[in-house]
Amino acid sequence: MSVHLVLHALQTLPPSNVNRDDLGNPKTAVYGGVPRARVSSQSWKRAMREHFTTAGLIPAQDLAVRTRHGISLLAAALHTLRPGLGEEEAATIAEKILIAATGASPDTAARRPDTAAPATREILFLGCRQVDRLAHLAADAADDITAYLKTKANVTALKQAVMSKDAVDIALFGRMVAADQDLSLDAAVQVAHALAVHRTPVETDYFTAVDDFTTNSGAGMIGRADFVAPTLYRHAVLTGPDLAANLTDYADAMTLEQVTAAFVRSFAEAVPSGRINSHAHTTRPTVLIATVTGTPVNHAEAFETPVATTEGGYLPAAAARLAQHIAATGTAYGDPTARSWLLTTQPQDTEPLNATAEPLPTLRVLADTAAAELALRTNAVREPA
Q1: How many CB atoms lie within 10 A of CB 346?
Q2: What are the residues whose beta carbons fall under 8 Å from the beta carbon of 244, sequence distance 6 or more?
Q3: Which residues contact 31 (CB under 8 A, 6 or more apart)?
């Protein structure tokens, strides 16, 4: 039996367009036969990764960078170790090292204007510690890079350096490298697309911009931008043994419990930043439920019939619907050993959920409590009988 930390949230956004489709419109999905606002899992995962740094939840050196400019990152790190190398020479060595380590292909037509290094055709997810480790190997190889790469043991060392599992966000969200499957890592986290609990009309804002140097009353330009204002159901699952396995190369810089607590906080605090200057849409979940269980369940089905609005908004009905679905699913399929905790900022509107989970006062307390329970059960599962 595995062990999972399951998160559920109800979160309302004001008029916003946090995640756009190819035409710039808010992403949507038809669910229960009606159109709903949708925020893709990829969008929210990126916001969470960025929040690890901006909120100081995880040290920068313990995170990764997703980029096509890994060669320039490696060249800069190499130049720090071997300052006598010229910029072109460092870029050439870094290119050969990274290509040998990852199997990626250089794209000489694409490069950042501030570097001599080309981009790669593939986007790579590189841990900062991995880049540093490759830089030290590149420094050793810099005197004769051609001879260095002719030795099989050296190439193996490069691949092992980039395969290490010492970036927290790679351990959580996984990595797929088409050029070399050995570098791929299965994620320990599943993140669902956030979906509105109600039918969601897409509205249009017609806006004007006034020319400050024009005296007439007309607009300097006229434009339009679509937006939605949804109450969303959000869901994620973190599998404890998978995360523990993915952290095996991490040298205990952060424990499973610490990484889990940081993940819970980032899930609650991070919001995608699409068009944020136009909408200032940063909110927090009104409801956050954390459950440690052996049977993770997505409760989106609670809203397959869309919630109807009332004078109290969508939240009271959504909370009641979610509580009912959690209870019914738990009775039919649930794990009797599951433990759940609840954080709500509107207890008067979410009272039915009190029967499904133990109320806690703050996000930090909920994150720490759930993380400790997940770590305890994960260690019990992983330890030999």
Answers
A1: 15
A2: 256, 378, 379, 382
A3: 195, 300, 303, 304
In angstroms, rounded to a whole number, what is the distance separating the alpha carbons of residues 383 and 378?
Answer: 9
Q: Is the CB of residue 32 less than 8 Å from the CB of residue 305?
A: yes
For residue 251, with 0-12 CB atoms within 10 Å meaning exposed, 13-18 middle and 19 or more buried, which class applies? Answer: exposed
Task: State the pLDDT at residue 383.
Answer: 67
pLDDT in tens, 37-89: 999 999 999 999 999 999 999 999 899 999 999 999 999 999 999 998 988 99
CB 301, CB 317: distance < 8 Å: no
- Measure the CA–CA gap between 298 and 193, rounded to whole angstroms: 11
- Output the six-digit token pair for 215: 């005296």
Helix and strand numbers, DSSP H then E, in the chain = 12, 15
Distance from C-alpha of 218 to C-alpha of 212, rounded to nearest angstrom: 11
**Residue 281: C-alpha distances to residues 204, 270, 277, 373 (Å):** 17, 11, 9, 33
Beta strand residue intervals within 128-269, DSSP E:
189-191, 194-196, 203-209, 221-227, 231-239
Within the chain, strands assigned E span 4-12, 28-31, 34-39, 64-67, 106-107, 119-120, 124-127, 189-191, 194-196, 203-209, 221-227, 231-239, 287-293, 339-344, 358-359
Cα–Cα–Cα angle for 222, 226, 227, rounded to 5 degrees = 130
Half-sphere exposure for 112 (CA within 13 Å, toward CB): 13
Largest Cα separation within the chain, whole Å, is 82
Between vectors from CA 50 to CA 115 and to CA 116, what angle results, nearest 5°?
5
Contact indicator for 82, 90 with CB cutoff of 8 Å:
yes
pLDDT (tens digit per residue) in 168-195: 999 999 988 766 677 888 999 999 999 9
Q: What angle do CA 360, 372, 59 make, to 5 degrees?
A: 100
Interatomic CA distance for residues 168 and 65, integer angstroms: 11
Please choose, from the candidates 250, 270, 120, the residue with its C-alpha nearest in 3D space to the C-alpha of residue 188.
250
- As beta bridge partners, residue 227 has 203
